[in-house]
Amino acid sequence: VALESAASVFTVESVPESVGPGESGTIGLAFEPPRLESFEALLRIRSDDAASPLVEVSVTGRGFTVGRIEVPAALEFPDVCEGTGELRRLKVRSTGTADLVLERIGFAEGSAPEFGFLTSTRTPVTVPAGKELLIT
């Protein structure tokens, strides 16, 4: 079994050692595209079949882009005197290969009511790939 491809996005993961008469076997292939693009390869299977010693199978796949979010694990405030306030900014980073769409921004149920937002949390909001959004 051999895989012929201009890009190394397809790999042969498993091949049966032998396939008996009247049986079938499974060849495991993996596809890991690095970007939004169509890819193709040719899978060549050589066997001891006298009628078809070489079989070729066209393999195709299309990669797509992914939105990924990166935020700090915690946002900590210092001790604050009562009646005053302290600001912190949350940096939301789009680290994927596609724009990140934030569908909801808000505090979880049961969060202390003393926390609030100064900037708009209107959604949906799109953060372009490689960019960031600051929320105060």
In brief:
The chain contains no helices and ten strands.
Describe the structure.
- This protein has about 140 residues and is an all-beta fold.
- It has 2 domains: about 1-65, no CATH class; about 65-135, no CATH class.
- It has no helices and 10 strands.
- The chain has strands at about 1-5, 10-15, 30, 35-45, 55-65, 70, 90-95, 100, 125, 130-135.
- The strands form 4 sheets. It has a 3-stranded antiparallel β-sheet with strand order 1-4-5, with no helix packed on it.
- Strand 4 (about 35-45) and strand 5 (about 55-65) form a beta hairpin.
- The mean pLDDT is about 90.
Question: What characteristics describe this protein?
Answer:
elongated, three-stranded antiparallel β-sheet, 136 residues, 2 domains, mainly beta
Instruction: Report the radius of gyration as a whole number of Å.
Output: 26 Å
Number of helices: 0
Unreliable parts: none
Strand order of the largest sheet: 1-4-5
Per-chain topology:
Blueprint: E1 2-5, E2 10-14, E3 28-31, E4 37-46, E5 54-63, E6 69-70, E7 90-94, E8 100-102, E9 125-127, E10 132-135
Antiparallel strand pairs: 1-4, 2-3, 4-5, 6-7, 7-10, 8-9
